[in-house]
Design a protein that fits this description.
The complex is a heterodimer of chains A (358) and B (290).
Chain A lengths: L1 H24 L16 E5 L3 H10 L1 H7 L2 E5 L4 H10 L6 E4 L3 H4 L28 E13 H4 L7 H4 L9 E4 L6 H10 L9 H12 L6 E3 L2 H10 L4 E5 H9 L4 E16 L7 H11 L2 H11 L14 H4 L6 H6 L5 H4 L3 H12 L3
Parallel strand pairs in A: 1-2, 1-3, 5-6, 5-7
Antiparallel strand pairs in A: 3-8, 4-7, 4-8
Helix pairs in contact in A: 2-13, 8-9, 9-17, 10-11
Chain B lengths: L9 H5 L6 H30 L6 H8 L1 H34 L2 H16 L2 H12 L4 H8 L11 H25 L4 H8 L4 H29 L3 H6 L7 H11 L3 H35 L1
The chains are: A alpha/beta (358), B mainly alpha (290).
Chain lengths: 358, 290
């Protein structure tokens, strides 16, 4: 009896060792996928549409051809829709691109904790891998100003953005939904606070600074609207996403960025809880993180790649808005993540009240 | 059934099974309504009472936050303005449709219907181009020597945009009622010595009121739920309730609160309509008497 048990145990142990060895052998490399490994399978990528999702699809073209998978695109990402899918147990979104915060706020609830042995995260810029997400790309929220209006005395920082006495003129702010943590931190600085030591009560102080900009302030609802405000010259200073800022300038808007403390934004790639084929989702993520894929993405969108080896070839107008140059990296401002993740709902509610004119 | 009343319900008497026919015919519509309105509505009410736990916490939250009450009130104010603008704009137009010949009428009908077929989003975006500070209206004003007016991101801008989108819902019911008014009644009134204005106010207007009420109710109720137009043409001071619902549900995943907001809007609407109903009915009867 004892003997058989020992035999059994050793067999199990041997199997375990073998399995580990096999796994070690198949250590994933970013950007690579086995020929024909996903034949007959379907994956749905969910993102924000427009040039961005087109760029992502182009970046994944090689993965699709090699693995034999059928890639479907859906969007835009809405956390409520994802929640409905997870709750009903019918998850049709296999890989989801989100803003900065959701994977941290809903980690383990809506988004799977990632098994990093299934991904090659060695080339991702430091500090960008989360428990439930890898970065999708980096970009910035930047202060754009009208060069004809401010001429020789342009605004240089967010402090100037909030100073309507020294810099009169109409401001445009991202009113597309969630508050931008970095902007509220900059506003809080103007109110004399220290963003690193922010408390929930300080959110009100920060929002008051925004409110003081006055009734002429424009809260744009979509990226396209922000671009239109720049191209028509409706606003004198605009908080803009770098991709939209680049396109507006390309289209002839007489605006230029003030890069000091541009707000770093990192879109996230996630795998929802309850997807039908987790390994297939991992394979897509791993391919997406590759050098070649990231170069294609950057070339098509002007967004900054998240693979350190990637060297996209871009023209001057796009290069002007890339955020991964050493100089830009020094000027960038990262929001206080530890504060915003637990206080996401409170901040959202207070921001919504400001948006509703209260 | 007594023999003295042979014509009243002969069919029903002869074949009792036929009484079910009207119900059978409406069954598809009723099933559809239950499936796409009744069931979701029930879910919303249940979620508003059960999330995150059973109780009235979502309603307590709604009435405890001043911003919700401000926006609720604003939603009704804007809708009332939109309805008023629609009545004023649609009434003469609908009248004109009844007064002209068939060819001109066709043109007038097309003028109403073609924008009706164009998506509300497209029409709202056209209003952005017209109303914005650097837009068509302001450029014209400035080149004529006036100072510009603030239209976009104001309540006025929202009312203009919404009224245009909703105008067909006012014109069509008005026209269908006005079409049935015998214009000879006006001539009769004048021949009895009434001035045209008197003839209009005592004869024509009361007869057309059912159309006004029907149109006004449709426009008012549709206005209450507007989302795209206030979002694109308005600013923070013209946010309507649907935007707040969207924030609660899509950004905060607070389905319960979103549901409670919807229920409050629905109940308030019902209460208002219940209050207005007697007025409408009495006017209606009065019109009939005259």
């Amino acid at each position: 009896m004892l003997k058989t048990k020992a035999l059994y145990l050793s067999a199990v142990l041997a199997l375990g060792v073998l399995a580990t060895a096999a796994m070690a052998q198949e250590k994933p490399v970013a950007g690579e996928v086995k020929e024909g490994s996903l034949k007959g399978k379907t994956l749905t990528l969910v993102s924000y549409g427009g040039i961005y999702q087109d760029g992502q699809a182009a970046a994944l073209k090689e993965f699709v051809e090699k693995s034999g998978v059928t890639l479907l695109n859906d969007g835009p990402t809405e956390i409520a829709k994802l929640q409905a899918q997870v709750e009903s147990g019918n998850v049709t979104w296999d890989v989801v691109d989100t803003d900065d915060l959701p994977p941290y706020v809903y980690c383990g609830k809506l988004f799977q904790k990632l098994d990093m042995t299934k991904l090659d995260v060695s080339k991702i810029p430091e500090g960008q891998v989360g428990e439930c997400s890898v970065p999708a790309m980096n970009y910035g929220v930047v202060l754009m100003y009208n060069t004809e209006k401010y001429k020789d005395n342009p605004p240089k920082s967010w402090a100037d953005f909030f100073d309507t006495e020294k810099f009169p003129g109409v401001r445009g702010i991202d009113g597309s939904g969630s508050p931008t943590g970095g902007l509220l931190e900059q506003a809080f600085k103007v109110a004399g606070g220290d963003p690193k030591a922010m408390t929930v009560a300080d959110i009100d102080k920060a929002i008051d600074v925004v409110r003081k900009l006055g009734p002429d302030t424009i809260f744009w609802k979509t990226g396209a609207e922000s671009q239109q405000l720049a191209e028509s010259g409706e606003a004198d200073m605009l908080m803009m996403w770098t991709g939209r800022a680049m396109t507006a300038v390309k289209n002839g808007a007489k605006y230029t960025p003030a890069w000091q403390d541009w707000l770093v934004v990192m879109d996230q790639m996630t795998i929802p809880v309850g997807v039908k084929d987790t390994d297939a989702s991992y394979a897509l993520l791993n391919a997406y993180l590759g050098k070649g894929a990231q170069e294609i993405l950057a070339q098509q969108t002007s967004y900054t790649p998240i693979n350190n080896d990637a060297q996209p070839k871009v023209d001057a107008s796009v290069a002007a808005f890339l955020t991964n140059t050493p100089e830009r990296q020094k000027q960038g401002y990262k929001q206080n993540f530890k504060f915003w993740v637990p206080n996401f709902a409170v901040a959202q509610e207070k921001w919504a009240a400001l948006m509703a004119g209260n | 059934m007594s023999a003295s009343d042979p014509i009243a319900q002969p069919a029903a008497d002869a074949r009792p099974g036929r009484a079910w026919r009207p119900f059978a015919l409406t069954a598809p519509a009723i099933i559809l309504l239950i499936a796409v309105i009744g069931y979701p509505l029930l879910t919303i009410v249940l979620r508003s009472l059960s999330e995150p736990e059973w109780g009235l916490q979502n309603y307590a939250w709604f009435f405890g936050a001043p911003v919700n009450l401000t926006v609720l009130q604003r939603t009704f104010t804007i809708s009332a303005w939109v309805t008023l603008v629609c009545v004023i704009a649609a009434y003469p137009y609908a009248y004109l449709m009844t007064a002209v010949g068939p060819r001109v009428r066709l043109v007038l009908v097309l003028c109403v219907l073609i924008p009706f077929w164009v998506s509300g989003v497209v029409r709202t975006l056209s209003w952005v181009i017209l109303l914005q500070d650097s837009g068509v209206i302001n450029s014209l004003l400035r080149s004529a020597g006036f100072s510009g007016v603030k239209l976009i991101r104001t309540q006025t801008g929202v009312v203009i945009g919404m009224a245009q989108v909703l105008l067909p819902f006012m014109i069509l019911p008005l026209y269908s009622v006005m079409q049935g008014i015998d214009l000879r009644l006006m001539r009769a009134a004048q021949s009895l010595g009434a001035r045209p204005s008197r003839a209009f106010f005592t004869v024509y207007l009361p007869l057309s009121l059912p159309g006004v009420y029907a149109g006004a109710i449709i426009v008012f109720i549709l206005s209450l739920g507007f989302y795209i137009t206030p979002a694109l043409l308005g600013g923070p001071r013209s946010t309507m309730l649907s935007t707040l619902v969207q924030t609660q549900v899509l950004s905060l995943l607070q389905w319960g609160r979103g549901g409670a907001m919807g229920v409050v809007l629905l109940v308030t609407t019902f209460v208002l309509l219940a209050l207005a109903a007697p007025v409408m009915r009495s006017r209606h009867r009065e019109a009939g008497r005259r």
